[in-house]
Amino acid sequence: MYEKDKEQQAKGKKTDIKNRFEIRLRSTKAVQAVEELLLTQNPRELVFYLITDFVDFPDYPLWEIFISHDSLPLEMNPVPVNLDVLCHGWKDRSCPHSSC
Hints:
By secondary structure, the protein is mainly α. Helix content is 51%, strand content 4%. The chain has five helices and two strands. The protein has helices at residues 4-10, 27-40, 43-54, 63-68, 83-94; strands spanning 2-3, 19-20. The protein has a two-stranded antiparallel ribbon. The longest helix is centred in the middle third of the chain and has 14 residues, at 27-40. The mean pLDDT is 77.
């Protein structure tokens, strides 16, 4: 989870999104999530399960209110993958200070 509005502000952009959850799964958990999504065709339920099952803020007093809310807004805005941008990002992260 991170503050999307502050990230965009640092880039000189504006967004109406305040906070954002990113869920990254690997190996078995990723396979299980895809299988569940294919079986249920319910991405909202799957995402909510992942958030409530794997994320916990025990010292945050509003967490219980947040996860018990039945109508949490969930937006999924798929973005087409641009292979050039993706490869450039990988290159930047794998060797940021050299000329790979």
